Amino acid sequence: MEDNYMTIAGASEGYYSERRSRFISFAFPVQTPEEAKERIDALGKRYHDARHLCWAFMLGAGRTQFRVSDDGEPSSTAGKPILGAINTHNLTNILVAVVRYFGGVKLGPSGLITAYRAAAIDAIEKAEIVLRTVDEEFTVTLEYSSLDTVMKIVKEENPRILSRVLEAECRFRIGIRRSRAQELKDRLLRVRTVKIFP
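RESULT FIELD:
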C-alpha cells in the first residue's frame, strides 16, 4: 500500500520565452480543486492583461484526480503539456499555471506544446520537492488509570499527537503513517480501558 507521495513545499515561479511570447509559470501546493481554483482566479486578476492563463493540477496520493485547461489555446497544446511536466516529476497535490503574453508571432501547435511544457518544468524545478506520508488520524479514549501504559506505547510508536485531554477520561487525537496505523491500534486496544474512534 502506497503511503507516501511527492509534492512541492511552497510556491515557485518560472519563465520561458519564444519569439517574443512570454510564458510566466507558477507552481503551488494545493489540497483541493477549490484551492486550485482560488489560485487560478487570483492569477487571472493579477495578470488580467495576459492573452492566456493555462493550467493543470494533480491531486491525491494515488494521483487520480486531475484537470487541465487550454484557456483558448488550440486543444491539448497547453494544459496537457503542463500536466505532462507534473507527471514527469511524479508529483501530486500541485497546481501549475502558465500565463502567456502573446508576442505577435504564432508558434504553431508543436511550438506551443514545447513552450508550455518548458515553462511548467522551470517552475517545478525551482520549487523544493518533498516526500510526504499519507497519514491516518483517529481518537483514543482511556481511563486515567491506563495513561502510563498508553503513553509508553505512544512513545515507542512515535505518532503525532494532534490534541490531548487529560482528565478522569483521557482523550488523544493521533496521526500516524497509514502503513503503521493498524499496528499502533492493535497495541493500544490490548490496554483494557482503551477505545478507538475514527
